[in-house]
């Protein structure tokens, strides 16, 4: 594969970036009254306004040329066709099949996977109906009132995001809780107010070997059995979501209580699979399928829309632009909707575990920066914490603002306040404040010339800070599905441009292996001394402070 920076489109883009370095968005807007309609697109009920970016038509032409030179269209087809594009794990990448119409075949290694997808969806429907209607009861015949999902990473963040985002659509009779951390405080604090007789545990783990999840699941199983004094209770209180039937059965969960998925579903792309069971329990299977439909709609858009009007492609290429030519190390996501407060954390895994790579597909070092640091918080909280740095800091931080037009409560005025803050932030970031306006304000306050000169640099807002705004009618299962799929495809496109495998995660392995060594040493109460002086020192200090 040709190095990124050697590509013709890259070189053209690089030159264009140098020549247009000092363009200001204020000028771009004042020269083009049509800039908003020109740089706004709609798909699947989402409107993307990308006009507040440091781009011109020429920038976009170069960016799309780059995507074409990187064979994006071919790679996109290879993904949808179920080819093993996850090379290092020799796997297909076909989470899109999970949201396909069940009569629309999807092939992996010569087999149509849709009958299996459909079977698990049916199993989920049957189970969620039974729990929600009170037909599935706990071991003492009582209705289930609380669901505790035990999982981590993709087996936690996706279902947690969607369950929380869709609370307004949730059953009032069933509460969902999520336990991920191996710190026992997480599970114990969650269980403290719950009754074992009415609690259902979902053990969610693709591999069913993840230490945190299995440890917490065992602790939960002990809690249940101890409290109800019935070893058979597990059958009525534990279900598993996994690809590993053998490990599930060894744990003691009945095969009929396991919901299967497959190795072609990456962990961070798994909320559409059986891993979505807590979502379906909370909002019902019909609503869950609406979420799948939102994802499917975005798949169709991504697959068929020309690059120039393809939402995930546009967002991805803007990210590539800032990453490469503006030294943008991070990318912020600010949902102006409290129900979306988990979104930044969810996108951290989606993006950073996918594109936090430093070698190309063929193992050679990448040619330039890859995935940015993803961060953010629900608005308006961040405004009173870290927006200062986005407005006046030395780093350029491209930011996505997400806003539903309708709030979920009958409080229009307060929703207007929320949205006015969102719009104001995008405006302030893009246009800043003219020195003349600051000067006249200070003069009106009666300050003398020296005081004004001293204050002016501190009050200056240079603007020219890029943002996208994504608007939807309301946050509902369909729009949430479309939004998540939008980001999935954005991450895919960036991985293609950087020529990395977005679907493995070897970087998380080393820490896990070293932890196993240290666990053994802690059990024996002494280190082998084979670590560095810092790790040895901390190990010994830990034992000393524990009185060992
Ligand atoms: O350690 C990282 C990781 O493998 C993620 O990719 C994954 O989502 C998470 O752990 C949980 O894995 P599992 O679902 O197999 O328990």
Keywords summarizing the entry:
548 residues; alpha/beta; six-stranded mixed β-sheet; 22 helices; globular; binds 6-O-phosphono-beta-D-fructofuranose
Report on this structure.
By secondary structure, the protein is α/β, with parallel strands linked by helices. It has helices spanning 8-19, 25-31, 35-38, 57-69, 72-80, 114-132, 157-165, 184-191, 211-228, 234-237, 245-251, 277-283, 285-304, 311-325, 343-355, 387-392, 412-431, 435-444, 449-459, 477-498, 509-524, 533-545, and strands at 40-43, 46-49, 107-108, 111-112, 146-150, 175-179, 199-204, 238-242, 258-260, 330-335, 373-376, 399-404, 467-472. The strands form 3 sheets. The protein has a 6-stranded mixed sheet with strand order 1-2-13-12-10-11, with helices on both faces. Helix 4 (57-69) packs across helix 14, helix 12 (277-283) crosses helix 13 and helix 13 packs parallel to helix 20. The chain is globular, with a radius of gyration of 26 Å. The model has no long low-confidence stretch (mean pLDDT 97). Bound molecules: 6-O-phosphono-beta-D-fructofuranose. 6-O-phosphono-beta-D-fructofuranose (F6P) is lined by residues 152-155, 205-207, 210, 213, 267-268, 353, 505, 508. Residues 152-155, 205-207, 210, 213, 267-268, 353, 505, 508 line the site of 6-O-phosphono-beta-D-fructofuranose.
